[in-house]
Design brief:
This protein is mainly α. It has one domain (12-130). Helix content is 82%, strand content 0%. The protein is built from five helices and no strands. Helix 2 runs antiparallel to helix 3 (44-67). The mean pLDDT is 89. This is GtrA/DPMS transmembrane domain-containing protein. One of its GO terms (cellular component) is plasma membrane. It is found in: Membrane. Residues 18-130 form the GtrA/DPMS transmembrane domain. It comes from Pseudomonas fluorescens.
Amino acid sequence: MKHYFQCFTSLDLLQLARYYLVGALVNAGGYVAFLVLLHAGMEPKLAASVLYVIGALVSFGLNRKLVFDSAVQIRTSLIRLFIMLLAGYVLNMLMLYVFVDLYTAPAWLIQIISVVLISVLFYLANKFYVHESDNL
């Protein structure tokens, strides 16, 4: 556990800035598409699901090269990515179900909150799991 705290305190701020720049661009485009799909009558969870896959693939490619300069084998990274994305997807769907379906909160607001929360979790997962070799 101590090792992870040492890694966390030595975060590369430039890397973090690049990660959030990539994420901001991908998520801004995805959020606009989400609103367009909602306006066109698509159910919020279906819209989020479709855009989740597209955004994940775009983000993976950009993060792999521009942010983490990953040397991890692509197959290993993709398996790790799938696990990370599945966890994020379940969290996103759970948030939409609980707050939109059960408590009738606006879907647009819950999706913003979800994007912020999941982006933090995904940075950590990308840095320490998806794009990091076994030699942490």
